[in-house]
Amino acid sequence: MGIFPYEDIVNLPHPVSKTRKRMSMHDRAGQFAPFAALTGYDGQVREAGRLTQMKVELDETELAILNQQYQILSETKNPEVKVVYFVPDKYKEGGEYVTFEGIVKRVNGQTQTLEFTDKTSIPMADIFSMESACFALLK
Questions:
Q1: Residue 119 located in a structural domain
Q2: Which pLDDT score, from 0 to 100, does residue 59 have?
Q3: The whole model's pTM is what?
């Protein structure tokens, strides 16, 4: 043995198998790719950690104010209104409050929805509050 370890094999040619084909670089790299034993687990953890809000139940006074506002909206031609309403979560209990601004097309008493000119429809049961210049008389 000389001064350097493995000096007897350093200059030998690379061994090549007579029975097997050489593996491509892509396939060789695949052997060292990370392995996810629990597919989808990360997504479930994120979903469980995602926060939702509970829907606030309005009292009689707040409901009376909303009813007056619906009446004013139904009597006013194309009023612009800002609505805060509750959107239930599709995957778990609760949801979130969303703000929408638009021009009211009509207050639909049959379907109990507020319909806008851009075809947005918001259920009245989910509306938390509304703001509009046409409500100035209520204050």
A1: yes
A2: 94
A3: 0.65
